[in-house]
Amino acid sequence: MRPLKIAPSILSADFAKLGEEVRAIEAAGADYVHVDVMDGHFVPNITIGPAMVYAIRPHARKPLDTHLMIAPADPYIEAFAKAGADMIMIHVEAGPHPHRSLQAIRAAGKRAGIVLNPGTPESAVAYLLDLVDQILIMTVNPGFGGQAFIPEIIEKVARVRAMAGERDIDIEVDGGITPQTAGRVAAAGANVLVAGAAVFKGGPQAYGENIAAIRQSAAAARGEMA
Ligand code: DX5
Ligand code: ZN
Fold first, then answer.
1. Which of 124, 138, 166, 191 is the most buried (most CB within 10 A)?
2. Which ligand is nearest to the CA of 10?
3. CB 36 within 8 A of CB 9
4. CATH 3.40.50.300 for the 5-221 domain, yes or no
5. pLDDT tens for residues 59-98?
6. For the chain, where are the alpha helices, taking DSSP H only?
7. Strand partners, 137
8. Torsion on CA atoms 18, 22, 23, 28, rounded to nearest 10
């Protein structure tokens, strides 16, 4: 089994003090810092750009797991790579050439990821498997934090895990992950769990407990101790 990673999404952080928030989630046990980039075009919300990634980078010790919800993505890959993103993930729906985009991410020396919207079938990644280090399966429609988990996607998680086979690919889920849903996605084969609302609720003094609750639920479903 691949190592379990918890990736808090800073979309739910206090944007007025992002550096502090990043340090707080890392101190609270985050494995990655998930950065949600939205363009108001591919998704109905606008959030973070390369300048913000660059500003956050010195505050983070853990990898920046950068989720591009932008179309087109290609013109910005280099900027996010230079800003300090560690993983760069593009949506399969963001353009006609995800294969080329993934090559560009790897050419920039970064870990490459492909993302599937809830309505996109797993077959969309069939010919991309040798170009990706991670596959992110959306368990809500992208655009906002705090939405309800879509349970039908659990089956897709299991199918994608099976398609990835023995390849060195992490399976990540994003949207509506809580201690209640974490076990179900982990049991289906997801090993990187993004969580926004469920990590940041209650403020900094609750981050440790919130991350631990998600980790425990996922670890138990994997038959491990957290
Ligand atoms: C949704 C983003 C998510 C989001 C998750 O478009 O990609 O990363 O922040 O937030 P929660 O965990 O609150 O659903
Ligand atoms: Zn995300």
1. 138
2. 1
3. yes
4. no
5. 999 999 999 999 999 999 999 999 999 999 999 999 999 9
6. 18-27, 50-56, 74-83, 98-107, 153-164, 179-188, 197-200, 204-221
7. 116, 173
8. 130
Q: Relative to the CA of 197, which ligand 1 atom is closest? A: 13
- Report how far ligand 1's centroid is from the alpha carbon of 201 (Å): 13
| 118: nearest Cα among 86, 147, 98 | 147
Is residue 174 annotated as a catalytic residue, yes or no? yes
Residue corresponding to tokens 């403020």 = 203
pLDDT at 226: 77
- My answer on whether omega of the bond before 8 falls inside 30° of 0, hence cis, is no
Q: Which residues does ligand 1 sit against, CB inside 6 Å?
A: 9, 11-12, 34, 36, 67, 140, 142-147, 174-177, 194-198
**Which residues does residue 37 pair with via DSSP β-bridges, in sequence order?**
68
Neighbouring C-beta atoms of residue 111, cutoff 10 Å: 18
| pLDDT per residue as tens digits for the range 102-156 | 999 999 999 999 999 999 999 999 999 999 999 999 999 999 999 999 999 999 9
Pairing type for strands 5-8 and 87-91 reads unpaired
Q: Whose CA is nearest to atom 1 of ligand 1?
A: 142
The domain segmentation of the chain, as residue ranges, is: 5-221
Q: Which atom belonging to ligand 1 lies closest to the Cα atom of 12?
A: 9
